[in-house]
Amino acid sequence: MKLLKLISSDKMIIGLVALIAVGMSFIYLGKGSENPVQSMQAKSTSTSVSTTNTKIGALEKELENKLQVNILQMDGVGKVQVSVSFSTGLKNEYARNQNVTRRTSKETDKSGGTRETTEVTENNQVVMPNGSSQPVMVMEDRPEVAGVLVIAEGARDPKVREGIHTAIQTLLNIPSARITVVPMGGV
Questions:
Q1: pTM for this structure?
Q2: DSSP conformational letter for 136
Q3: Are β-strands 179-183 and 145-152 bridged in parallel, bridged antiparallel, or unpaired?
Q4: Is 47 exposed, middle or buried (0-12, 13-18, 19+ CB in 10 A)?
Q5: Ramachandran area for residue 186 (φ above 0: left; ψ -120 to 50: alpha; else beta)
Q6: 160: Cβ contacts below 8 Å, ≥ 6 apart
Q7: For 22-131, where are the E strands, in sequence order?
Q8: Which of 82, 83, 153, 179 has fewest C-beta within 10 Å?
Q9: Cα–Cα distances in Å, from 99 out to 94, 102, 118, 134?
Q10: What are phi and psi of 58, to 5 degrees?
Q11: How many other C-beta atoms lie within 10 A of the C-beta of residue 80?
């Protein structure tokens, strides 16, 4: 009975909750890295990489999905996993307003000598539509494919492997050396 009264008291419950919170904070803080400088550098590197590669990563995923859908339609392929990597980033070309002004002047001095001066002024500004913060894009090139890896169940069969290889080479118009097709492991 005394134990039930002790456990049910408000002070005991508050103390128990506080003790659990302190214990959890020690566990959480104890999992940090030993070198805080390395931890900070690792966090800043991962942040900059993830923010700069979001468009590229999305393009890679999109291409992987398209290739996977096409390869799955082939006879004898089975399960498929496709990985694509790019060697370059997106290439954008923006509309520019180019103005070149040339001004030539001739001067004659007292002794009869002449001097000709040519002044060239170039103005090369990106075209911005009224009320928009985005410039006018003329062309957008996809990044260059560095390589493609296909892991397929049916790749143990040389005909299936060759078919996958040829399909990727045709779809992406890349050299054969950038494509690897291997059989899926496992039982």
A1: 0.50
A2: P
A3: parallel
A4: exposed
A5: left
A6: 74, 75, 76, 77, 152, 154
A7: 80-86, 91-94, 96-108, 114-126
A8: 83
A9: 16, 10, 16, 21
A10: -65, -40
A11: 21
C-alpha 162/C-alpha 155 separation (Å) is 8
Structure tokens at 165: 């290889």
pLDDT tens, the chain, 187 aa long: 555 555 556 666 676 667 777 777 667 666 554 444 444 444 444 433 443 457 778 888 988 999 999 999 999 999 999 999 888 777 777 777 788 888 888 888 888 888 888 888 888 777 777 777 777 777 777 788 889 999 999 999 999 999 999 999 999 999 999 999 999 986 4
Site of tokens 């892991």: 151
In angstroms, the CA 19 to CA 72 distance is: 56
Q: What are 49's two structure tokens?
A: 């990489």
Q: Which residues contact 142 (CB under 8 A, 6 or more apart)?
A: 59, 90
